[in-house]
C-alpha cells in the first residue's frame, strides 16, 4: 500500500509538471530537502511523509483524494465542479474552460466519442443561444439563497461567458462520434420552467418572446443535425428519443487518453470522475437505453418529423 501511494503521488506530480521543468528540481524547490533525499523518494526507497505530501498538494495543486482513491478499487473519486456562489460567473467560466481544454486536446483524435442520456436539452447544443443559456443561469441563481437575483432582466452575464459557451459548443462538434439519447419531455420541462417564472412576473413578455424565438431556432438546428447525422465538422451524430423518462442526465467522454464520466447536479453543475470502473458502468447504462429508444438521425424520417413537430407545438404555448 505504501509503495502504491508513493507511486501514485509521483505520477500525480508528473501530470502537474510544467513543460521543460525537471521533476527532481521541482520537488527540491517545493520540499526544501536535498537532491539525494529527493532521488531516494523518486526511486521508492524512502516514501514521502504525510507533511511532504501535504506540501506537494498545497503548492502544486495535486489532489490527495485522487492519489488515495486510485489505490482502492472499490472507491471512485469524484470532482464536485460546483459553481461558487460568491463568484458564480468566474467559477462557471473556469469550469467551462476546463471542459473546452479537454475537448480541444481530443480534436484530432479519431478514437474520441461521447454519449449522453438527457432529461434536459443538452448544453453541448444549446449553450450558444444567449437567452436560453442566460435563463439556465438565472434559474440556478434564483434558487441559490446566497445569490441576490430577483429578476431575469437584472442578470448581467459577462461577454466572456457567452464566448466560452460558444467555444464549448464548437469544440464538441469535433468529437469523432456522439450518441444523444433524449427524454421525450426535454422541451416540455424547459417550457414549464419558463412559464412558471413568467407567471410570477420574473420574466418579461419581451424576454419570453426572445427565448421562444431561440427555442424555435434551436429546434430547426436539431432537426437539421438529426437529418444529416453529421456535425459541421463532418463527425457522426446519432440521436435517439427514449420511450421512458430519465431521472438524471448522464454523460461520458472517451478517447485513447481519457475516460471521463459526468453526472449533472444542481441545475448547471456536473460531478466528474476518471475512475475506470465508474466509466464502464455509466457507459453501459447509457448505451442500454437505446433498446427503449427510437433512432431519429438519418433514418426514422417519419418519427423525426413527428418528434420535432411536437416540440414546436410545445414551444408555441409560450
Q: What would you say this structure looks like, in words?
A:
This protein is of the alpha/beta class and 318 residues long. The protein has two domains: 68 residues, 434 Repressor (Amino-terminal Domain); 228 residues, 2-Layer Sandwich (Endonuclease, Chain A). Helices cover 52% and strands 13% of the residues. It is built from 13 helices and seven strands. A seven-stranded mixed sheet has the order 6-5-4-1-2-3-7, sandwiched between helices. A hairpin with a 3-residue loop joins strand 5 and strand 6. This is Transcription regulator BetR N-terminal domain-containing protein.
Short description:
This protein has about 325 residues and is an alpha/beta fold. The chain has 13 helices and seven strands. It has helices spanning about 1-15, 25-30, 35-40, 50-60, 65-70, 90-105, 125, 130-145, 160-170, 185-200, 205-230, 275-290, 300-315, and strands at about 115-120, 175-185, 235-240, 250-255, 260-265, 270-275, 295.
